[in-house]
Hints:
By secondary structure, this protein is α+β, with helices and mostly antiparallel strands.
Amino acid sequence: MRSTIRYDNLIWVDITEPTEGDIKYLKYKFKLHPLTLKTIIPSMHHPDLDVFKNYISIILHYPHAQENSDIQIQEIDIITGKNYLITNHYQKITHLNDLFNECFKSGVRKKEYMENGAGVLLFYILNSFLKRTLEKLDQIEDEMDYVEKDIFSEKEREMVKKISYLKREITSFWRITDPQGDVFYSLKIVGANFFGQEFRHYFSDLLRMYRRIDNALKTYKETIESLEETNHILVNLKMNEIIKVLTIFSVVLLPLTLLASIWGMNTNFLPFSKSGLDFWLIVGLMFIILLGMIIYFRIRKWL
């Protein structure tokens, strides 16, 4: 599907699920290089920035968190000349659609985004792209705070699953955004050279936002690994305490079981067997052995 917005001599073409018809349209309308057209269909798995004589071609990937906590990679292709900008994507990208609809429905927004040319429009699109990523990272940070709090609230077993999900989410975000660093570093120079030095601050601001994302992900990655290690230690300590208690019970009951087995043997001679108090004598002996073992464990600080 292809949609178009015009403002003075600037045109914004947004394409969703591109077809061969869209490729022909772009080829003849904007005289795009064949190499650029090949990056539109099929989708590309790596971010990229190419500079041609009359336009800049950018390929980026957006991490979209689904309801089942999986991270879907959404590609967005941006081709921008001096008086046009083309956005291409294969899935609905909410923040891009919102920006496009604002321009389409509101004359004020259209003027704000498109009055100063394709360079400023490109800035607003990429700025929205990075802002939404930062918002998702803020949500991850809130979840990590929740995990950090609950680790020390006797919820270690529950946190194993939660930490695993968070670790996967952070790793997926990092895997998607990290390769895009070269694009934003290059755009700072390429964008200023293409649109004019007055745009240098726009693209420098985008680079600063990308660095915030990159630094945040590195911090989150280290933090979640530390939380995972801490939770693992706490789980092991609890398991060790359980094993310790079970082991003590086993050791304490072992001699008592041995005595019960001995006096249960069918032999001609057993101590106390001819005494009327044989049962109580055996129980008393068991109690003395039990008490002695408990005192010994207390002395050794095993209890």
